């Protein structure tokens, strides 16, 4: 099963799980309504007959009671989901974490941040925000609505007790939750369960109010008894609903943990790292338990159980440690070693200590030389997207090392990160570069412009293959911008794109990657209800890529036709270059993003066929394809020379059947 099949299954599982929980809610509403009617009958001294509810109270009253109960559950869920609308950041802060992307406080935090950045670059995803929880136990989590607002959380014990391979295994496990679409489902579960729990809390408040009141007389006593019964009934029903909701949550979570363990092994190409981390949890006195008062609410999101083990495994959100370890190491002897702080030095490997003087050496080892041919690009689309391997991790390390040390440091600062993006969108040399630099002096913040002058030479000397990784490194710092700063930044980027009076597709792709990485719900206003809008969007993207790769109209038309053929679309004239505008490109991407998961690989193969209609893909074209894939929520890892061959590139139509 590949990334697109996982995404499709996640959508179906999400719909099924939400359906089950909604059914539970409807049953809860029905039972609660009957209970309320019975108590009203008792209070009015009338016999209760479930078959005569309508005649007893009137269907309008019964409907109002059911609507009130349903509204309480829905409003409780909406309230919790609103609290979590910031995505993973809200979860991390609720658990007491602090972000380390901008200013890691220790060597252990620097190492953890470096591991996460390597994983992100290796998988082609924006670098997530990394939070450290001041807990002595070993645990981690991934949370968010999508990869753009994803957060990786690591406990203090995790970054200090685990060696680099074990930490890499844990981080790979969490990235698999991001790839497999688990995060959004986890957030929805929290919201729905909170809505059900509110019924129990409402019953508790009613019970307290009734118990604290004073009364006299039979009628008052009967009314007080009714309130006490109502409160008790609501508590029982609410907590019963929560009981069954937690059962569903636990059953789903346990199976996904096995899948994430397997994905982590596939990512790192070793079972020793993640198995070693699980063994250290078993040998640590605090294990994986979290002390936070809200640990139970997010229990299904953790790497290992964050709660004390109960007498029964009914509510266990994670499989037992021995079961997970034996799946990874069948020959394990069953012993947990005593866990102490890792003696491994936190110093970065030599490959990541390289300064600017060694950049040229890494540039010479660029991932893809111009004119190289890919070995079955279709297989790369099917098997590499959302499914990176150890070769991608090694390439991610090399790409990081090819970025000058000054730029890697600057990417973690909100002022310098904006300067980096401005410079990436500028032309490399010539009159256009001077014109854009002069424009930036006028429109950029003075502090940002100082960073532009300081970093300009380093950006110019950096290999082209490092542009996307550097942009990904900037994402956490750019997300830290306040709304006013972000709006000015975005307007300046658009002015920069329009400054040379022509549309450069690569510049637009960088702009689109940046916006997609910062905005968690981008361009929803651009969606079109028009029938055939997705097909039109695919045609427009094909036309843009065809013109980007060819200045000659006839060659561009041949590339466009190759893409149409790969997508099984009717032949049509190639739109003129003047028809390509930034708003229309943005709208085409926004519409294409709504394609069902199983239709996205076909679009990517069609775009690749367009660019490689002559059987050859240039290195810059591969990076452009990766940028478009990122904007479609399809994380495409970087590609290296080991993934290429001298054989002609297979046409998309040859392996699509």
From TrEMBL:
List localization entries: Cell membrane
Please list every transmembrane segment annotated in the UniProt record, as residue ranges: 20-44, 56-79, 185-207, 227-248
Pfam families reported for this sequence: Peptidase_M48 (PF01435)
Q: Where is the Peptidase M48 domain?
A: 114-329
Which GO BP annotation is one of this protein's? proteolysis
What top-level branch of life does the organism fall under?
Bacteria
Q: Which cofactor does it need?
A: Zn(2+)
Matches recorded under InterPro entries: HtpX_protease (IPR050083), Peptidase_M48 (IPR001915)
GO MF annotation list: peptidase activity
- PANTHER family reported in the protein's UniProt record: PROTEASE HTPX
Q: What is this protein called?
A: Protease HtpX
The upper taxonomy is: Bacteria, Pseudomonadati, Pseudomonadota, Gammaproteobacteria, Cellvibrionales
């Amino acid at each position: 099963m590949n990334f697109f099949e996982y995404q499709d299954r996640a959508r179906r599982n999400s719909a099924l799980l939400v359906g089950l929980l909604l059914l539970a809610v409807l049953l809860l509403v029905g039972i609660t309504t009957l209970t309320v009617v019975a108590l009203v009958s008792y209070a009015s001294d009338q016999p209760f007959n479930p078959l005569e509810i309508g005649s007893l109270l009137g269907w309008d009253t019964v409907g109002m009671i059911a609507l009130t109960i349903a509204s309480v559950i829905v409003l409780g869920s909406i309230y919790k989901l609103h609290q979590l609308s910031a995505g993973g950041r809200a979860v991390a802060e609720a658990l007491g974490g602090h972000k380390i992307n901008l200013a890691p406080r220790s060597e252990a935090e620097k190492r953890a941040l470096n591991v996460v950045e390597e994983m992100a670059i290796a998988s082609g995803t924006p670098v997530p925000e990394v939070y450290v929880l001041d807990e002595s136990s070993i645990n981690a989590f991934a949370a968010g609505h999508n990869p753009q607002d994803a957060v990786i959380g690591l406990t203090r014990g995790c970054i200090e007790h685990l060696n680099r391979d074990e930490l890499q295994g844990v981080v790979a496990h969490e990235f698999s939750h991001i790839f497999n679409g688990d995060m959004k489902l986890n957030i929805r579960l929290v919201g729905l369960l909170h809505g059900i729990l509110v019924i129990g809390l409402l019953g508790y408040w009613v019970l307290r109010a009734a118990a604290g009141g004073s009364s006299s007389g039979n009628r008052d006593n009967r009314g007080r008894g009714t309130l006490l019964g109502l409160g008790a009934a609501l508590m029982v029903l609410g907590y019963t609903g929560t009981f069954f909701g937690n059962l569903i949550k636990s059953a789903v979570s346990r199976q996904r943990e096995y899948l994430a363990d397997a994905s982590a092994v596939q990512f790192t190409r070793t079972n020793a790292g993640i198995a070693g981390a699980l063994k250290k949890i078993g040998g640590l006195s605090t294990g994986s338990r979290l002390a936070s008062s809200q640990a139970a609410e997010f229990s299904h999101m953790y790497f290992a159980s964050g709660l004390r083990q109960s007498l029964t495994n009914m509510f266990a959100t994670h499989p037992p440690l021995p079961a997970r370890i034996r799946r990874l190491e069948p020959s394990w002897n069953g012993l947990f070693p005593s866990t102490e702080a890792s003696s491994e030095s936190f110093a970065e490997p030599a490959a990541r200590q390289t300064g600017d003087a060694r950049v040229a050496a890494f540039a010479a080892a660029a991932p893809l030389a111009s004119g190289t041919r890919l070995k079955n690009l279709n297989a790369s689309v099917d098997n590499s997207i959302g499914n990176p391997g150890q070769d991608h991790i090694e390439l991610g390390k090399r790409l990081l090392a090819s970025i000058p040390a000054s730029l890697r440091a600057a990417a973690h600062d909100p002022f310098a990160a904006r300067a980096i993006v401005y410079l990436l969108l500028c032309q490399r040399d010539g009159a256009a570069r001077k014109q854009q630099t002069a424009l930036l002096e006028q429109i950029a913040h003075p502090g940002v412009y100082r960073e532009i002058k300081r970093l300009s030479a380093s950006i110019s000397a950096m290999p082209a293959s490092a542009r996307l990784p550097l942009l990904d490194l900037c994402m956490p710092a750019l997300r830290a911008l306040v709304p006013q700063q972000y709006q000015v930044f975005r307007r300046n980027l658009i002015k920069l794109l329009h400054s040379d009076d022509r549309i450069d597709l690569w510049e637009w792709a960088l702009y689109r990657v940046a916006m997609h990485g910062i905005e968690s719900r981008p361009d929803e206003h651009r969606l079109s209800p028009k029938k055939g809008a997705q097909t039109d969007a695919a045609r427009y993207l094909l036309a843009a890529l065809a013109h980007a790769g060819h200045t000659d109209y006839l060659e561009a038309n041949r590339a466009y036709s190759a893409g149409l053929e790969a997508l099984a679309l009717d032949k049509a004239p190639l739109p003129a270059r003047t028809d390509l505008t930034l708003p229309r490109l943005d709208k085409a991407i926004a519409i294409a993003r709504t394609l069902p998961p199983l239709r996205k690989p076909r679009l990517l193969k069609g775009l690749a066929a367009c660019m490689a209609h002559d059987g050859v893909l240039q290195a810059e074209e591969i990076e452009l394809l990766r940028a478009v894939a990122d904007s479609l929520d399809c994380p495409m890892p970087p590609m290296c020379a080991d993934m290429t061959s001298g054989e002609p590139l297979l046409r998309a139509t040859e392996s699509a059947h």
